[in-house]
Every structure is written in structure tokens, then in C-alpha cells.
Amino acid sequence: MEALEGPLLTIITASTPLLLAALGELVAERSGVLNLGIEGMMAVGAVCGFAAGYVTGEPIAGVLAAIAAGMAMAAIFAVVTLVFVANQVASGLALTLFGLGLSALIGDAFVGVPGLGVTNIHIPVLSDIPLVGPVIFGLDPLTYLAIALAIGVSWLLFRTRAGLTLRAVGDNHVSAHALGYGVVRVRFIAVLFGGACAGLAGGYLSLVYTPQWTPNMTAGRGWIALALVVFAAWLPARLVIGALLFGAVSYLALYLQGRGVGIASQFLSMLPYLTTIIVLVLISRNQTLLRVNTPACLGQPFVPDR
Amino acid sequence: MRRLIAAASAAAIVALAGSSAGAADLKACWVYVGPHNDGGYSEGHDKGRQMVDAKLGDKVETSYVENVREGPDAERAIERLARSGCGIIFTTSFGFMDPTIKVAQKFPDVKFEHATGFKTAPNVTTYNARFYEGRYIIGQIAAKMSKTGVAGYIVSFPIPEVIMGINSFMLGAQSVNPDFKIKVVWVNSWFDPGKEGDAAKALFDQGADIIVQHTDSPAPLQIAESRGLHGFGQAHDMISFAPDAQYTAIVDNWGPYYVKRVQAVLDGTWNSQASWEGLKDGMLVMAPYTNLPDDVVAMAKDTQAKIESGELHPFKGPIYKQDGTEVIGEGEQLDDDTLLSMNWYVKGIDDQIPQ
Amino acid sequence: MAVLSPVIAIALTVFTGFFIFLAVGVDPFEALYVYFVEPLTQWWTVQELLVKAVPIILIAIGLSLCYRSNTWNIGAEGQLVAGAIAGSVFPVLVPEWNGPLVLPVMLLMGIAGGMLYAAIPALLKTRFGTNEILTSLMLVYVAQLFVDWLARGPWRNPEGHNFPDSRPFDGWQVLPVIVGDDVRINAIFVLIAVVVAWFVLKRTLTGFQISVLGQAPRAAAFAGFSQKRMVLLTFLISGGLAGLAGICEVAGPIGMLRTTVSPGYGFTAIIVAFLGRLNPVGILFAGLLLALSYMGGEGVQIALNISDQITRVFQGLLLFFVLTCDTFIFYRLRFVPARSAPRAAGEVSHGSA
């Protein structure tokens, strides 16, 4: 039983940044905006979070800075795609590029510097229960935030008026506009939320996961987050499962190597990506689930008619 | 803000240097595969460059290019340096080997030094450090300190340099505890903190209680620190990242070598060679021994002294391959060529080398 | 306006660049000169610029066909690698074969490799409706890991002291140089591709189908144009071109199959495709401009000690500005005076350029 504790903790912490980034993107996509720039927003969030934490000595400053940085990047994207109605795919790629480059420029002064690290929560009796204790009651604060966020987003989307409006805007922006909903305003807020989450995910990497800053430390997680959103059929609950699954498969690849399994490390490293493809294909076969949940206007530019 | 000031003064210096071009007798240039301040391998070379600045700054101007990807980009970067007046160019990663040779052919008057490679030319030298000597020492420390008798070894790619390191570590460990075991994980990168950290976690979860790495980020040590376990730093003293976890580190010390070679160019005595020096010549140093009991520190220092004096050679026989065949017998020693193309594990390692 | 827009975008980028260099603490005029002008002043750097631009333009042409029909192939990098592997089969496994036929066979196999690899996301989309952005992207990682394994393992040079990378190609296996020291025959392939693509788009039915499918999918459906056929066709074309670019890189500048075959050409090509506004001639110029930005980035690194990451910042900015300026081509800006009903003071309405 003890042997399970380590792997479970590792998998959960590995899945947290994915979950955070994907939740934000889920909200943005539900409002009809496809933001491929998660990687860029995460990178800038990571470097700003690290820098703020390092300079002030307070992890909370780092967290807030990461969120703000992500939102700032998302704002650029929002202006380009919502006000100037530019192609969302291209704009997202531009954001990724810009964000990665900018983060490296800002981070130049912080490479090779040890970071703060955020300590895990410790509840006196509960955290000490073997296996269950640390896994459920001994995680770091941001992981709990991610789970709370998942619950919150789910509740917001499906049980509130605001969530209904958001989904309406994503499903049929023409009708929503006709009904008087501020399509651009709703989408703007959704995209900003997506940026905040992506920034936070990046901050998690540089403050908690591996407390340091290195260029390209996001290592493609932004793209995985995108896949997870589709994977989850735009449902937050499934997103949690998807993030854990991806974290588990990635961990398994390394674990198997340590076990001495004779498969080449490159093939083991392919596992997460191949798994993603397979699951995506399986999901696509469930047309009903997709039809109900895919925002129908995803990626389409919105221009109100006269 | 401090970047602004630092960069502004750098710009001022560049402007001044531009106006007084020709004041330096020689321009020495470096090519790094990573950032100059990566806290690991490339930074080690940059520290060496800074030593050249400090010792020979009145006669030599130094500069560098960083984040150069191996391949055609490298060839272009090296050529650019050659064209901009560099008299000696140090290319610091194995993957720069062919680009270095190609550019060297075009610029026969420029001297090139390639780290960790094996191709030389009239104007190309190769240089490397006998890191395996350090690995032997940390192998002994690991075997002494490990409670589970298992170390986790995080590595990048199965090249001879890395295999040599693993074998040397194992031989050192076996000299203290013949039943010592290691578990090897390949992360397919020299520098990927996320993956290295995950590999460390996976290894710790499987019963290893000491972590060794041949990758460049401090992430594995940070994980060790967070779990109250221990490990060894790589290329750079990583004590600031893991004050309670690091026992020691194998620190690259390219500075004295660089000063020596640049001085040789200034003196006109430079010639092409294949240089492979070790602890004795200070090409590598062991970081201060920390978090260790005195007797282990004494043992480590003793081993180091023996290696430096030549009394002890990590690859002295008898040495057996994994399948039991004897490679060399008692009293013999593996020669450099065998070491430089090593692709087999010593007996006692259970994993297979990826083929 | 259609030509003016990218020019304005470039001007805006340079303008912003001025301030970025200022913020980083270097002389902005010198930096801009080193970045944008200096690479053009020496024959050597011009050659290097062409060498870098050629694979990017080649791939971007293929991608533009995809994007015009609203098919999002993000996996060109993986198709490039697949082409490089496929094209290297003979030089690596049968190195003795060194006659005039080797190179054409290598190139054809490279194209085939890229096409086959691109067929995977295409088929997954047409048969199962799976999102091609994600599948093509995941396959990039798979391809990169596979070539890493090949070059370190079974295809490693037997005389390489157990170091990675394949045996170097020689003789007929190497892509010949045609201009100066470095510009090779793949530059001709690019020119051919530009002309053919232009012709296909402007004068053939297929080109028309591509355009209509992208701009008015419903009209296309009514006209009987098959979306599925087009997805397959555009993926195969872009995959083939990416594969060609891949084998040309391996047989040319690199000269062997290495563990990494491309510094991200497949992704840069995506940007170039958009910068060139999905037009073959535009892509030609956009590719040259982007190659210039790479040269410039390396130049400022050496001359002014600025991190080369500034290149990515510039490229991202350039793309943002191009996309934003495009709005003024696609839409007409109209200012509507505020009335009693709450309405925005400025409103964008549909127009035609």
C-alpha cells in the first residue's frame, strides 16, 4: 500500500498544471473562442510568477503575478480576435510564439537561480493516515485550487444563468446577439479567464513543480491541455479524469524504464501522445456526446450584422 | 530594472570596444548549446571563459553565442564567429563536431577546439575531462550512504561518455558494496527539469534512496531535498538548490584549460591534440562534501588523492561485462580507446543499454 | 490595400522592435540595422538566408492549400521528419548504392514518407471526425522520438565510436549545390512549387474547390465538392512537400540522418503561410522575410549580446500585426454615431475588399 503513495502523489501533481490550463481553455472554447496560445500564456505566467516570487520572497506574489501575466497575454489575443476579428488559429499560434519568446527574454536574468517552492498542506491527524492521508489531505495548495476550480467551473457552466449565457454564445452567436447578449464581452471575459488559468498553470510549474525557471519549461503542456479539452468533450468532470490519465501515462513511461522493461525509452516516451490520439479517436466515435457538447461556433469569427 | 542598467552598461562597453577595436591581440569565442547561465553544463564553460577574461583580459577579447542548436544552425554560428575575427573558437557540445570540422576546413588560420568529440584536424583539437574519475568517487559515497542499496541514475542519451560514467559509478559502488544496484532512466534530453524531476520521483518510488544524474538541471536534487533523500549534483555545484540533499557534485572546471590553450595561441605554441585530462589537472573538481559523516568524507578524499597520484584507476581489472565475460584481468587497465567507445555495462547492472 | 497591409504590418513590427531594443538597453538603430539589414549585405549571409528559407517556403506552400480549405495541418514538422526517414532508407541501409539514380529515388521516397504520415491525421478526420489539429500535432512528437531512436540505435554509424547519427551521405546521395557554396537544388524545387501552386489555385477546378470549401462550406456542399476528398488531398500534398523538405535537409545541409532533423521548420512554415496570406507569391516573400529574422537574431546575439529569443518575439509580433491589418482588408470600418439605443460608437460591418 505504501508503494502506491509516491506514484499517486506524483501523478496528481503532474496533472495539476494540465488541469488548470485545460479548465481555462474549456471556458474559452465553450464561449466559442479557440485559443491555441496556451503554451505562450503558460510560459509568460511561469516566468512572471517565478520572478515575482523570487524578487519579493513571497510565493503568493508569484501566484498573483502568474495569473496577471496570463491574463495580459490573453488580453492581446482577445483584442486581435474579438475586436479585429482575426483568424483565431493563426492568432493563437502567434500568441504561442510571442509568449515563448517574451518569456525567454524576461527570464534571461533568472536562469540558474533556485526558486522558492511552495510547501504542501499538512492537517495534523488527517494527513498522517497512510496512503489516503498525503494523497487527499497533504497536497500543495494550488492542486486543491485546481480541483475547486473544476467544481466551480462545472457549477458555473451548468447551473447558473451566466453559464447558460456563455454556452449560448458559444453555440450560436448570431442568435445570442439577437437576444441582446454581449457576445464580444462574454467572450472577452472567457478568454481572460482562460489566460488567468494558463498563467496559473505556468506559475505552478515554476513555483511548485520544479522551482526554477528555464526556457521552454512548459515542454508542450499547452498543446496537451488543448487535447484534453476535446478529450473531455468540454465537460469539466471528464477533464479531471483526462488530466490524471495523461499524468499517469507519462509517469508510467518513466517508471517502466526504472523497472528495467526492455522497451526503448523513446517508445515509452511516445506512450502519452499515442494514448491521446487513440482516446481522441474513441471520443470522436461517440457522436451524440460530441454533438451535444461541442460549441457549435467554436473558432468562427463573430461580426454583428448591421 | 537591473537588466536595464546592466544592459545599458554592456551597450556602453560594446560601443567603447567597437571604437577601440584592434586593442586586443586575440579574440577567443565560445559556442554553447544551452543558455550561458543555465546553472549546468553551458554555464560551466562560460565560467571558464570568464576565467580567460580575468587572467588574459588585457590581451584577449572573449565573446560567445548561446542556445545554438546542433545541425546547420551550428555550422552557421561557428562560421559567423570565424568571419567576425575570432582567432580561436571553442565549440562545447558533441553535436557541433561535424559543423566544426566543416568550418575549420574553410578557415585554416583559425583554431578550433571541440569538446567531447573525436574528430581532429590540423587546426582542430578535441578536449574532454575524465569525468568518470569523479563518478567512481561518488559511487563509493553512494554505496556507503545508501540504506536500500539502490541508487537511481538519471541519464540523457546512451553515448559512450554516459555509459562510461555509469560503469565507473558502479565500479566505485561495488568496491564498497559488491551487491549495490542501480536503476537507470533515460530522459532523452540533456536538460528537461520537468522530466528529470519526474524521473527522480519514479526512481524514488521504486526503492532508490540516492539520486545520480548525467543531466543538467537541479530538478532531481530538488525532488531529493523535498523527500529528505540525497543525491549528487552534475556539472555545477547545486548546493544552493538542495542544501540538505547534495553530498557533492562533479563540477566542470574548464577555466584552467581554456587559459592554457588561449595562452598557447598567444605564444604561438598551439597545436592540434586530443586532450583528456582529469582530477590531477583540475579539469574537474569535486564540490565540497556536505551532509556526510566524517569517515565517508575522509574515504572520498583518500580515493581522490589515489586517483590523482595514479595509484587508483577506476577501470583497473578485473572487469566483467554484464554477461560475465572478462574484459580485462587483474592488474590490467582499460585503455582510452575502449573507454571512448564504450557501449556495454559492467557486471552487476541489471538494465539493458538501449540499442 | 491587399499589398499595403503586410507592408504596414512590417512597419509596425519594426516600430515596436525599436522600443523593445530600447527596453532591453541597446542602441535601437544599430540593433535594427544588424537585425534587418546586415544579413543582406554579405553574399555569405544571403546564401545562408536562402538555405534557411527554402525548406520553410516549400512546406508553407503545401500548408497554404490546407488552410485555404479550412483544414488545419499543424503536423508539418512530423511529416518533414517522416520524409527524412523514408528518404534516408537507402543511403543508410545500402550505402554502396551510389549512382545517379540514388538521389531521385531518395527524394521520391521522402515525398512518399511525408504523404503517408500526413495520411494518418487525414484519415482519422475523414473516417472518425477526429480533430486534425490535435492528431497531427501529437504525431509530431511521435515522429521526433522515432527518428531519435533510429539515429541512436539501429541506424547509427557503425564507424562512429558508438556515438549517435548515421553514416554521412556521400557522392550521388548528397543534394548538389547549384549557387555559391551552399544554395542547393531544393531552391529550384521551391520555385517550381510556387509556380505550380499559383497555377493550381488560379486556374484549376481543384484550386477553386479549395477556395470555396474554405470560404463558403455550404455553397461547396451544394456544388457537390467533397470536403472529405479535399481534406485528404490537401493533407497529402502538404505532407509530400514537407517530406521533400525533410529529405532535402538531410541530404543537403546536414548530410546524414541525425537525431534531430529540423529546428522547427514545420512550425515556422505555419507562420510563413499566414504571413504570406496563403498566397504562393506572398509566401515566397514571407519566407525570405522570416529567414531574415533568423539571421538577424543570430547577428544581434553575437554583435550586441541580446538573447536570440528576440527572434520569436518579433515573429509573433509580425504575425499579430499582419492578422490585425488583414481586418482592414476583409472588413470595412464604419463609424456610426451614437443613438438613443445603446450601441458602440465604432462598429465593424461586413464589406468586401
Task: Give the strand content of chain B.
Answer: 15-25%
Alpha plus pi helix count of chain A: 13
Count of helices of chain B? 11
Major sheet details of chain A: none
Order of secondary-structure elements of chain A = HHHHHHHHHHHHH
Which structural class do you get from the secondary structure elements of chain B? alpha/beta
Give keywords.
heterotrimer; A: 306 residues; mainly alpha; 13 helices; B: 355 residues; alpha/beta; Rossmann fold; 2 domains; 6-stranded mixed β-sheet; 11 helices; globular
Concise account of the structure shown:
Chain A has 306 residues and is mainly alpha-helical. Chain A has helices spanning 2-30, 38-56, 59-83, 88-107, 132-137, 141-159, 161-171, 173-178, 183-209, 221-231, 236-259, 265-285, 287-293. In chain A, 74% of the residues lie in helices and 0% in strands.
Helices and strands in order:
The complex is a heterotrimer of chains A (306), B (355) and C (353).
Chain A: H1 2-30, H2 38-56, H3 59-83, H4 88-107, H5 132-137, H6 141-159, H7 161-171, H8 173-178, H9 183-209, H10 221-231, H11 236-259, H12 265-285, H13 287-293
Helix pairs in contact in A: 1-6, 1-9, 1-10, 1-11, 2-3, 2-4, 2-9, 2-10, 3-4, 3-9, 6-7, 6-11, 7-9, 10-11, 10-12, 11-12
Chain B: H1 2-19, E1 26-31, H2 41-56, E2 60-65, H3 72-83, E3 88-91, H4 97-106, E4 111-115, E5 124-129, H5 131-145, E6 150-155, H6 160-176, E7 181-186, H7 193-205, E8 210-213, H8 219-227, E9 230-235, E10 246-252, H9 255-267, E11 274-277, E12 284-286, H10 294-309, E13 319-320, E14 326-328, H11 336-340
Parallel strand pairs in B: 1-2, 1-3, 3-4, 4-5, 5-11, 6-7, 6-8, 8-9, 9-10
Antiparallel strand pairs in B: 10-12, 13-14
Chain C: H1 4-24, H2 28-37, H3 43-68, H4 76-93, H5 102-128, H6 132-152, E1 177-179, E2 183-184, H7 186-203, H8 205-215, H9 217-223, H10 227-254, H11 265-275, H12 280-304, H13 310-330, E3 331-335, E4 346-350
Antiparallel strand pairs in C: 1-2, 3-4
Helix pairs in contact in C: 1-2, 1-13, 2-12, 3-7, 3-8, 3-10, 3-11, 3-12, 4-5, 4-6, 4-10, 4-11, 5-6, 5-10, 7-8, 7-12, 8-9, 11-12, 12-13
